[in-house]
Each structure stands twice: as structure tokens, then as C-alpha cells.
Amino acid sequence: MVFYSGIRCSYNGIKRLVCSRSLITSTRPATKPQNTLLPQYLIPFLEQNGGSTAAVDHVADTSLTHGHCAELTGRIANLMVDAGVKPGDQVALASFNHLMYLPLTLGIIAAGGIPGLCNPSYIEREMEGLFVTGGAKMAIGHHKNIELIGKVCKRLDMSAPLDVDAIVDQCSNYSSDLPNITMDINDTCLLFFSSGTTGFPKAVEITHDNFVSQLMVVNDPTGIYFDPSTVNSGFLPSFHVFGLVMGMHALQKGAKSVCLDGFNPVTFLESIAKHKIDFAAVVPPVMMFLAKHPLVDKYDLSSLTELFVGAAPLSERMERDVRARLGDQVFIRQAYGASETSGGQILVPKGTHLPGSVGNIAMNHTAKIVNVATGEEVEQGSTGEILIKGPCVMKGYLDNPSATKEAFTEDGYLKTGDIGYVDEGNNFYIVDRLKEFIKVKGFQVAPAELEALLLEHPLIADAAVIGIPDERSGETPKAFVVLQSGAILSAADVKAFIAENASYYKVPGHVEFIQSIPKLPSGKILRKELRQREAKSEGEGQSLF
Questions:
Q1: Could you give the CA distance from residue 278 to residue 230 in angstroms, rounded to a whole number?
Q2: CATH class of the 37-184 domain in this structure
Q3: Residues 6 or more apart from 25 whose CB is under 8 A from it?
Q4: What are the φ and ψ backbone dihedral angles of 86, each rounded to 5 degrees?
Q5: What angle do CA 119, 120, 126 make, to 5 degrees?
Q6: Confidence of residue 18 (pLDDT cuts 50, 70, 90)
Q7: Helix (H) or strand (E) holding 367
Q8: Phi, psi of 417 (to 5 degrees)
Q9: Cα–Cα distance between 143 and 55 in angstroms, integer?
């Protein structure tokens, strides 16, 4: 699962109680379901705050008001209908952050389409996998990748992709009234892509009700809870559930987001200083940057009052280092969730300081911690797999009934694949991961995907990949490689091969050549043995490639 932080590897100082097994329920007041479609839920907020600024492009120095966002949603929806989008059609949205990203997403939804939120930095083979998995009928690209998207569309016999900038011009000819499209709150309105341990992408189906319920969670006074004066750092990628939730919540509250099309140290710091950003949702590598990089001292970051951390593990030490660097006025809290839960469903309450904890369960949701082997609930304070149930939990994986069935228990709880426990205050602590995918800067990397790619190299006979701790990225892949007899290949050659065929964050940080890959008779790789080997190597101080 994505979107978690605060891994705790020891329990010193945590009083652990033994009590009867029970569901972990929220202490936050329950709210009634909204029973409305996502665009219809958000547009009244946009119109209410119509004259205030919704988004600013820091580099281009352009902006949109909330009222303009409402108008664009309708115009884009009518453009999409005119372009042939029908209810249930998946529109692959492969754009970097852009002022139009959120209105474009809402417009596609209002047309009855389903935005498939693709990583715009993917190479062709990866992008094609997303298009196929989601069943894309149309694609939208960005000027940085429109040529690549065009090649993928041509290969899949799709029409040429639309450019997000061209849509801005084209939609001005259409009405701002929402088209009359019949939809239900239980219809899918968003697709996020999540790589499982098989290495193949899965399309996470999020319904209108799921995402509106998520916006209610973050709008709880103990949630994220922006107000109209909030200035939000909008550098997180909007195709990621973390970035999308933050951006949509800003629209919900009449707040301002400062748009960046990625993380660049200079523009990130410049944007905080220039726009007086006070809230930033970040990932641990950015926390490390704030704690250690010398550039930080050259900018006035005094406006920053809250850092909300998710998407990957954060150590207590790093939290302390950031506070020491930026000052005690900066409040730091963490959260846990997933694409499969529409965002964060366990979070530290606003105004509460809980170092090392990811907080407690959100309103309208329940959780339990179960023994991995038996599925039985464990006693409070004991570790087990975290299960979550509630209105934000996904509909399922698109066209993948076996994976959907595997993701849920018989009583309807989502299996998160993460191991944790709760203290006497029902605050969650994450101590391990059950699933085998690797978290690199908040992105999921499936070992099986890299293993399959490595085996395409003519000089590689066998391969296995595990994740190992990395101070900068949280984790990094390490490849164990068996060469063909007589073959000569360097670690640099292996890394270069991956770099040519996969995104940059999937390139192994380390490569080790070994004689054989440990496996079960069935052929399943024994990654546990490789992790034990790695731990022993670190203990003996052996060098890595």
C-alpha cells in the first residue's frame, strides 16, 4: 500500500496493553453520506469562492480562480462529450502538474468518462501497459510527453492524443453548463494504477462515493482541514492519490495551491518564499532535503507552519531534524492510506504531535489487526496485518476479479499488506510490510517487473530483486544477478540496461552478482533468504556494487 509513514522498529517507551480483541473504531464524529457525484459535490464550493485564486503556476506566473475552475469543468465536459467520450469510457490522463489538471479531471468525470491517472514520466512500454490495463479509449498528454503518448496511441490503434494546452483553447467554444449525463454514486469515477507483486499494473476503481467520502474525511476539523487563507504547495504529482486529494481539498475549501510540475529544489524553495506557502504535503525525501540541504538556509521559509507527511516511511529522527532546522512553528504529522482507500484513512489529528505514529482511524471507518497466518484479530498492542473497512475503500481492481477477491476478507475488510499495532490510545504504528513491492520516493516498484526485465538481457541467466533501506529514497531496489556461463557484465551495465527500459526510480541502487537465486521447488523466489543475506552482509561491513 502507498501513503504511509512513521515506521517504528522498536517499542521503547510505548506502553503496550493486553486486552480483549475488538474492532478499532474512530473517535471522530460520524458524518452522513453525501450521496452525490464528485463534480456536483465540488462545483458549489468553487462557485461560493468564485473570486478567490484557486491555483498559481509558479514558473509561468499564471493563475486560475475557483470560479474559473467551475466554468472550465463544464466546458471541458462538453468538449469531451463532443469528442466522443461516453459514460464509462476511460480517458488516459498522462499529464505533468498543470493549472488545468484538476478542472480537466473533473470535466472528464462530468462527461461520464473515467480519468485513468497515468504517471507522465513513464517510458513507452510502461505507458502502453497502463493504457491496456485501463482500457483507454482516448488519451491526453502534456507538451513534455505528447510525442511519446502519440506513439503509444498509434501502436494501440487509438486516435491521436489531445494536448492539455490545446484543450484550454478548444474548450472556450463550449458551454460551461454541465452536460446531462446519467451517473450513479457507485459508478467508477477515477482509476489509479497500482503495481502488484506480479509486476503487472492494476487499475484501482474509485467511485464517486469513495472520493467524496475521502474529501469529507480530510474536511473533518481533525483532518487536513484547510481554510480559505491556506496556501498549499502543489508540487506533489496529481496522478498520485496523495497529490490529487490535497489539490481537490484546496478546491473544496477555497484555498490556493501553488502549482509546480515536479520537485525541483530551487523552484520548491522559491515558491514557498514568494507565495508565503504555509502548508506542504510532502514525502520523506523532501523532509530529508529540508533537514540537510544547504540551499534551505538561503530562503525565507518562515511562512511554513505545517508539513503533512505520507507516501513512504519517515523516521522520528528525521522529524526532529526538520523541526530543528525550520523551527518549532512547523507542525509535522503523518498519515497512512493507499490508492485502494482513496487516500489517507489513518492520520494524526490536526494539532496533535505523535512522533513515529501514523495516527488513528478516520471517521466512518473501522480497522482491525489480524494474525497473518490465521486471520484472527490480535490483542491490543500485538502486531499483525492492518485491515480497513469504510466508505473510502475501493470498488475493486478493474477487470481483475481474482485480485479483487484476494484484496478483501470475507467480511469486507481491505487487506493492506502492512504490519502494525496500536497503543492504548488506538494510535497506529507501522513496523513492517507484508507485501514485497519496494517504495522508492513514494512510488511502488514491483520486484517481479524488474526481474522480468533483467531476464531480457542476453547475458543474464537469472535475477531477483529486493528493496533495501536508502536514506535518500526510503528504499532502493537491489538486484541479485546470475550471469550466463562465461559472460562478463558490470554493475554499471546492469543499471544502464534498466535505465534504458524503465523509469529512473526503478533503476537498482545496488547490484550483486551471485551463483544462484534461492527458490522453492515451485520456482518462487525466496526473497526472505536474500533479505537475510543482505542483513548479514551489512553486519559484516561488506561493500556493495
A1: 7
A2: alpha beta
A3: 361, 366
A4: -115, 155
A5: 65
A6: very low
A7: strand 366-370
A8: 80, 10
A9: 20
d(CA 167, CA 351): 41
The model's pTM: 0.84
Within 13 Å, how many C-alpha atoms sit on residue 466's CB side?
18
C-alpha cell at 148: 511519446
Residue 312: what pLDDT? Answer: 64
C-alpha cell at 63: 493563475
Residue 301's identity, in one-letter code, is L
The Cα–Cα gap between 214 and 135 comes to 25
**HSE, side-chain direction, 13 A CA sphere, residue 51:** 0
Summarised one tens digit per residue, pLDDT across range 227-256 is 999 999 999 999 999 999 999 999 999 999
Cβ atoms < 10 Å from Cβ of 15: 9
Pick the CATH number of 447-539 from 3.30.300.30, 3.40.190.10, 3.40.640.10, 3.30.310.80: 3.30.300.30
Give yes or no for residue 12 having a pLDDT over 90. no
Query: Is the predicted pLDDT of residue 526 greater than 90, yes or no?
Result: no
What are the residue ranges of CATH 3.30.300.30 in the chain?
447-539
User: What is the SS3 assignment for 505?
Assistant: helix
Render 236-279 in DSSP notation, one character per residue: S-TTSHHHHHHHHHHHHHT-EEEE-SS--HHHHHHHHHHHT--E
What sign does the CA torsion over 390, 394, 395, 396 have?
negative
Which is nearest to 441 in space by CA: 476, 478, 479? 476
| Cβ neighbours around 488 below 10 Å, total | 8
Q: CA–CA separation, 434 vs 436, rounded Å? A: 7
Residues of the chain with CATH 3.40.50.12780: 37-184
DSSP code for 534: H
Residue closest to 426 by CA, chosen among 94, 47, 22, 155: 22
Task: Give 14 or 37, the one with higher predicted confidence.
Answer: 37
Number of neighbouring beta carbons within 10 Å of residue 74: 23
CA dihedral sign of residues 445, 448, 449, 451: positive
Integer Cα distance of 344 and 309 in angstroms: 11
- pLDDT digit string, tens, across residues 28-84: 988 888 999 999 999 999 999 999 999 999 999 999 999 999 999 999 999 999 999
